Amino acid sequence: MSSQSLHFFTPSSTACPNITFPKPSLPAPNRRLAFASSPRTFSIRAVSESSDPNPAPPPVVVADNGAGSRVVAAADSSSIEVDKVTEAELKENGFRSSRRTKLVCTIGPATCGSEQLEALAVGGMNVARINMCHGTREWHKRVIERVRRLNEVKGYAVAIMMDTEGSEIHMGDLGGAPSAKAEDGEVWTFSVRAYDANRPERTITVNYDGFAEDVKVGDELLVDGGMVRFEVIEKIGPDVKCMCTDPGLLLPRANLTFWRDGSLVRERNAMLPTISSKDWLDIDFGIAESVDFIAVSFVKSAEVINHLKSYIAARSRDNDISVIAKIESIDSLKNLEEIIQASDGAMVARGDLGAQIPLEQVPAAQQRIVQVCRQLNKPVIVASQLLESMIEYPTPTRAEVADVSEAVRQRSDALMLSGESAMGQFPDKALTVLRSVSVRIEKWWRDGKHHEAMELPAVGSSFSDRISEEICTSAAKMANNLEVDALFVYTKTGHMASLLSRCRPDCPIFAFTTSTSVRRRLNLQWGLIPFRLGFSDDMESNLNRTFSLLKARGMIKSGDLVIAVSDMLQSIQVMNVP
Fold first, then answer.
1. What total of structural domains would you count in the chain?
2. In whole angstroms, what is the distance from residue 522 CA to residue 126 CA?
3. Model pTM score
């Protein structure tokens, strides 16, 4: 392949870089950059002044396949790994119809079996979430093993997210019952006593020793963000008698908040640590199991995130676990920018957030969190009560569909099912609704050319990082203007793939990486289709091999137009598939 290059020379002095612009001989713009003779490329590269203009191609990078063996990429169709569902969708529907919004499913009693997990993977689950509020570590270990086996044997790339319980006030286990129904007018007892098997009827244990002292008669007690409401009517030692004013379903270990005169009562609860002693044991468990993400509940400041990341770095073999900050409290909103900057991503936990701020403020808070995450190049998950009615019913309400549509329209990276998939009666149908609504809204966005003018500030600290940002911004803009079929990015760390995702281009982004763990983590980010592939610093060799492998699997065809970028060579190449 012959090519024409635009070089950015970066001398060691502080003088402005010399930039040369050779005139490209591209054809006039139209739907395709069709070439009459042999395929040609237009490339943009950033190189050092001291770089060898004709470097020898380095050896192909080898990568651990997650099972202890070493794999060297070879030019055959079996040496590239991609999620089998994504592969089938691309073959059947083409580039433009692939879903960009990622889907997270909470795993619980309804979906913990191997068959149920595979059904979720077939339905589009990108990340499996295990909630440490429920179940034992042994139970979660079995779920992790089943997900990993599904990936290895069946060819999926489902990532695993572990969600910590947090140290906020919450209920106990309901005596082993999966749920309990609180009816209007019923009187329930909330107690800090440690009961044995003989727990009195309509009695709920509370994990916070100061609960009975902090609440007052007349306070309003909200369970699980307001899904059930009680009024405090009497205090008797460690027991608090409450009358149900809004009936609903009580779930084990649901969060509790109480309000007085229309305001949230925080008092000593605000002094509880973000990460409890149980959370630290759960985090050790997550590190030992090499989960891909750890979501931290009730984050109050960036200091907590930095502390946890240092802890993980000291104990993790490869320090490849991303930390997700759950935004679900007033403190989280007050320190939003610094928390997100310190984290590897964020979750809009709307249920608990709605228990701490007025309900009418939740939509604006969600939009702000999504925008800040996008500006700071951090993936964001919109969670809680997306399809709450589907816990019991096979179809969602129209309002729930509108809510999901708005989250997709805001360009959130991912949507999350909680009780709908963990304990609902129709987990597969709930996932189907998320998938179909996401695809439909994304298509509407592309067809209508609704390109938003969001300001994306620079996030890189070095000159090289700023070059990478400019390259990705330019590549995404070119992809939209030229209506290319796909963006290719070769990345060892996933950083340039995330920069492309941040730009939200119309076409899908094929992210090629040598690392199995990086491939799984990229599964959380908008528009990325992660592949595992060994590659070198020779972009022409990488492209030729990639085209050959993808064509052999029927995922691309001759004439498709792609733009390729790389974090090793900092380059842009535009070309038709030969």
1. 3
2. 10
3. 0.83
